[in-house]
Design a protein that fits this description.
There is one protein chain. The chain has 802 residues and is an alpha/beta fold. Among the domains are: 328 residues, 3-Layer(aba) Sandwich (Alkaline Phosphatase, subunit A); 135 residues, Tetratricopeptide repeat domain (Serine Threonine Protein Phosphatase 5, Tetratricopeptide repeat), CATH 1.25.40; 83 residues, Serine Threonine Protein Phosphatase 5, Tetratricopeptide repeat (Alpha Horseshoe), CATH 1.25.40. Helix content is 49%, strand content 8%. The strands form 3 sheets. It has an 8-stranded mixed β-sheet with strand order 5-4-6-1-7-9-2-10, with helices on both faces. The protein has a 4-stranded antiparallel β-sheet with strand order 12-13-14-15. Strand 13 and strand 14 form a beta hairpin.
């Protein structure tokens, strides 16, 4: 028998500081309704322009650095005695420190959306990670600066800020090329880029940058959990949660030193505005919350915000605030000499700096819909005045933050009049477009692949239908459910690290206490599916879908479970239902195409692959690769090569691409090129047993039998159920006269694994030959007969017989 190859497979300059103390401005107004627009009469505008003229720089560069998950009170410039943040502290001393800055939601994507648009969450439409998109055509800082003549670039460190969520609008360059193929496990500790890698990308761009003024954004994710600072920072801090978190911030501070040095070395420091802002903080166990996103206490809302401005004006100044992240955009517009557009909801803090007027206090807004979208519990909203902070929940909370900054004493029962005023203001803000009810806040549906990846990041396991939640009566107060939230997050972290048994213990306990937590069901189903238990995954998904029949994450896992069980019709029904629910979703098209390729329905596969590519070009590497496989099957070799190379351009380490190039080159008769491609596949992915098998066949044809045997051994090590690999290894040992007893065992194992395959006759022939050599006539005749009988059955089946 002629063997055939396996087919296609699917550091820093010191800054001089001038310290100028600015007295705390007493609050003039206790209760002030926020104004939506920046309005000034002509005279005051002229006066304001004269006061800030030395500050404005229409030719200045702007560098914005956002620090993910960074509490203000962990930097030295905010009074933290144990801080190791000398660079940022020096920048604050030589620049502007906004002492009391707060984010609008303690989640990465919506917080950045508020920063870049100057709008509150309801107005820009992004209210959670993963399930929302900044709408096309949105007014953004980057877009406005590009239109005004700045060249723009962004360098992000986490998939939660991938371009698919819309923050790339206005950027000439958006560096978000996350290659998930490089991660063995997509989890909290793997799907993030070290800040040093992100900084290298920025510095490479800066080196190529001409003399044009630029706006660049660098996003540093390192302080996000899990806390694992690189050396030498890890060794400098205690091996505790707080110590490791401080180590991550110290590492980020060192990166800021490298940024300052790079700008200084290029003569750019004195013509660049540098802004450092946190997107949200981290609870670190306060109020029983381990991380962030769930509650609205200041541990996760108060963020660092500091600016270094060119020239001597306003060095060492402090904005006492309070300020919100939405205030940064109008402040930067005024710093750069640009008009602040009408409709921006933030308010510049420049008047306080110029001395034109003290900052008018107004209540500041924050929200978290995370408990609602992911668990079916109540959303949270908060307002703060100079004295009080109100958190609207089924059990409302009120804190005297002037006397109780840790928010430890709930005074809601003592001040019903204050709560009533806060509730009226939330209603007023709803009418003004700054806030809204949950009915209007339903998320757009992301594709299923995205939901899987964000779940691994600890952010998302799917969305929850607000319509379904309404029918369940009053929503639970998140305060009464925080222990379950922490356990689900712990389970997701364990699962992302491959600790499935630990994750299942947590999820079992959660579901026993609250069987309606769909995220827990879906995460457990995903673990079951990965563990080879699709029937259990099916059961959990069905339970989740009883709560919400349109819960896409569960539908996707359910369809996969059907597919794993060989229930092709049910799987196709599930994938088609996902397409009905979300026409933007590329993943079901990809899954249907995979099934079509397995059934050799090439035309249907091509249709769905082309649709997947059309829907999601940035994430279409796998679709291009499979499309190349389909063209390879159809012998359309030029189109096949084009698609495979497109996949490699999108994801240079994508599995099976070089393997398919090897098949293509074999088809063209380029054996050395095929061997090179297979070897490259093995180099990138040592467990690529099909590439090893095909390379072994080519080595055998070249008479390089020792190398042939080596690769066949590694192929069956990588996949112990690879029946053909056992049979061909037995054949190679038999041909070379090596260990015949081992060859007998290998051949029998291959036949046990797959007794009726087209290659199984070879296993019987190998055994017959060995028994003939050993003089075991009866065994020889038995195996020879078995080989011939099996060949006859295979020929009959191939001819359409029964």
């Amino acid at each position: 028998m002629t063997p055939r190859p396996l087919p296609r497979r699917r550091g820093g300059a010191s800054l001089r500081a001038i310290v100028l103390a600015v007295p705390l401005v007493a609050a003039a107004v206790y209760w002030a309704r926020p104004s939506l627009l920046l309005t000034q009469d002509a005279r005051s505008r002229r006066d304001f322009r004269r006061r800030i003229e030395p500050l404005q720089g229409s030719d200045w560069n702007l560098l914005l650095v956002t620090l993910d998950t960074t509490r203000a009170d962990r930097l030295g410039c905010y009074g933290y005695a144990s801080a190791a943040t000398p660079v940022m502290d020096e920048l604050a001393r030589g620049g502007v420190l906004v002492r009391n800055a707060y984010c609008q939601t303690p989640l990465t994507l919506p917080s950045h959306a508020s920063l870049f648009t100057g709008l509150y969450p309801k107005s820009h439409g992004v209210r959670d990670n993963g399930g929302f998109f900044l709408k096309p055509g949105a007014f953004t800082l980057a877009g406005a600066l590009r239109q005004a003549g700045w060249t723009t670039s962004a360098f992000v460190s986490a998939f939660v800020l991938d371009s698919r969520w819309g923050l790339n609008q206005g950027f000439d360059v958006y560096h978000d090329n996350f290659d998930f193929a490089r991660y063995k496990t997509i989890g909290l500790d793997t799907v993030q880029r070290r800040g040093g890698e992100t900084l290298d990308a920025f510095l490479g761009w800066l080196e190529r940058q001409a003399e044009r003024k630029f706006f660049s954004w660098i996003h540093l994710y390192d302080p996000h959990a899990p806390y694992d600072p690189p050396e030498p920072f890890k060794a400098r801090f205690p091996d505790t949660l707080d110590g490791l978190y401080d180590g991550e911030i110290a590492y980020v501070d060192s990166l800021m030193g490298a940024v300052v040095s790079a700008l200084n070395d290029r003569g750019l420091l004195e013509k660049t505005v540098i802004v450092i802002a946190g997107d949200h903080g981290e609870s670190l166990g306060e109020h029983a919350e381990d991380t962030h996103g769930f509650f609205l206490y200041d541990a996760t809302l108060r963020v660092p915000l500091l600016l270094k401005l060119p020239g001597p004006a306003f060095r060492g100044r402090t904005v006492e605030g309070p300020a919100e992240l939405v205030d940064l955009l109008p402040s930067l517009f005024q710093i750069l000499g640009l008009p602040v557009p009408a409709g921006i909801q933030g308010r510049s803090f420049l008047p306080e700096l110029t001395g034109r007027a003290p900052r008018v206090d107004r209540s500041m807004y924050a929200e978290s819909f995370y408990p609602r979208y992911h668990y079916g519990w109540s959303e949270l909203r908060s307002l703060r005045s100079p004295r009080f902070k109100f958190i609207e929940a089924p059990n409302p909370e009120l804190y005297d933050i002037a006397a109780d900054p840790g928010e430890t004493r709930d005074l809601s029962r003592l001040h019903p009049d204050v709560i009533a005023r806060f509730r009226r203001e939330i209603q007023d803000r709803a009418e003004l477009g700054e806030d809204g009810g949950a009915d209007e806040a339903a998320p757009a549906r992301p594709d299923a692949e995205t939901m899987e990846k964000l779940m691994a990041l600890g952010y998302i396991g799917g969305h929850t239908s607000t319509a379904r939640m309404k029918g369940r009566g009053p929503l639970a107060d998140p305060k009464t459910k925080i222990h379950l939230f922490n356990r689900v997050k712990k389970a997701e972290g364990e699962a992302s690290q491959g600790h499935d048994a630990d994750a299942l213990r947590e999820l079992d306990a959660v579901i026993e206490e609250d069987p309606f937590i769909m995220e827990a069901r879906q995460v457990r189903a995903s673990i079951y599916l990965r563990s080879g238990k699709p029937e259990l995954a099916e059961t959990d998904c069905r339970e989740a879908l009883k709560v919400d029949p349109e819960y896409e994450a569960a539908l996707f896992v359910l369809a996969q479970a059907y597919r794993r069980q060989g229930k092709s019709d049910e799987a196709l029904t599930g994938f088609n239902r996902l397409i009905e629910l979300n026409p933007r979703d590329a993943k079901p098209h990809l899954s249907i195409a995979e099934m079509a390729l397995e059934a050799r329905d090439l035309e249907r596969a091509i249709r769905h692959l082309q649709r997947a590519i059309e829907l999601d070009p940035p994430m279409s590497a796998q679709a291009h690769l499979l499309l190349g496989s389909a063209y390879l099957e159809k012998k359309i070799l030029d189109d096949a090569e084009r698609e495979i190379r497109t996949a490699l351009a999108l994801r240079p380490r994508i599995p099976d691409a070089h393997y398919n190039l090897g098949l293509l080159r074999q088809e063209r008769g380029d054996i050395p090129g095929a061997m090179e491609a297979y070897s490259r596949e093995i180099e990138l992915h040592p467990g690529a047993y099909p590439a090893r098998f095909n390379l072994a066949l080519l080595l055998a044809a070249a008479g390089r039998h020792d190398e042939e045997i080596l690769h066949l051994r590694k192929a069956i090590e990588a996949n112990p159920s690879f029946a053909r690999g056992f049979i061909f290894l037995a054949n190679a040992l038999q041909k070379t006269g090596q260990d015949l007893e081992e060859a007998i065992g290998l051949a029998r194992q291959g036949l046990r694994l797959d007794p009726e395959s087209e290659y199984s006759p070879l296993g019987h022939y190998v055994l017959a030959d060995i028994y003939s050599r050993l003089g075991q006539e009866e065994s020889y005749r038995r195996e020879l007969g078995a080989a011939r009988d099996l060949e006859a059955r295979i020929r009959k089946k191939g001819a359409g017989g029964s």
